[in-house]
Amino acid sequence: MSKELVQQKFEAAWEVFAMTCGSYLAPEASYQAWFAHYLISQFGIDRVAREPVVHIRNLPENEHTMTFGGKSEIRLDAVVTREPGIMMPHYANRLAKAVDGTGLGLLNHLDVISELKVAASQTNGLDFPEVKRDIDKLRMLLHARREEYGESKQPFAYLCVLDNHPKRKKFDKERLLSLAENIDTDLSVKVLYKSSENVPRLPENGRLYKWETHE
Prior knowledge:
The protein is an alpha/beta fold. 30% of the residues lie in helices and 16% in strands. The chain has 4 helices and 7 strands; from the N terminus they run ααβββββαβαβ. It has helices at 3-21, 28-43, 128-149, 173-180; strands at residues 48-49, 53-55, 73-75, 78-81, 110-118, 156-163, 190-195. The strands form 2 sheets. Strands 1-4-5-6-7 form a 5-stranded mixed sheet, sandwiched between helices. α1 (3-21) crosses α2 (28-43). The longest helix is centred in the middle third of the chain and has 22 residues, at 128-149. It is globular and about 55 Å long.
């Protein structure tokens, strides 16, 4: 599949997800599951997976690794493989242990790595430090993969932001895009941002699921 087609399919899945799910109010895991559903509709169930784990403690240091000091592992929200067939157990799984001991080599078999942020999944919405951490996470992995395996076949990296909080003011899209800018194209993170017109409708008294009895 060409790079252009991979991008078209991923971004088409994002558009349908953002249009369909912006009015829902749910935990973050639900949004991630819905997004994966739309990715599967584009790429097939045998090319889409969630939360592969990469050991980062011994990755090459760069400006992005500082954000994750003290952590030993990170997970990616959703990935798309280059070829059909999912084979991504934990990097230390005894049944199929990663040769490099970290799971970083998995990126050589991925077309897309991505992170998803949904404003309505958090009471206070999203803040920039939190969003920047996801950009740093993606860049850290791209940098480490290039240092270990060379420049060819870098996966596409996407940060997807659904701005649908029912009360907080809209996210500063321009500032977000400026965070993602990078002269080094190998470390490029593309931001997909959607401001939802139909945000979740909250109950007037802030309470859900009142129990009603019937005589």
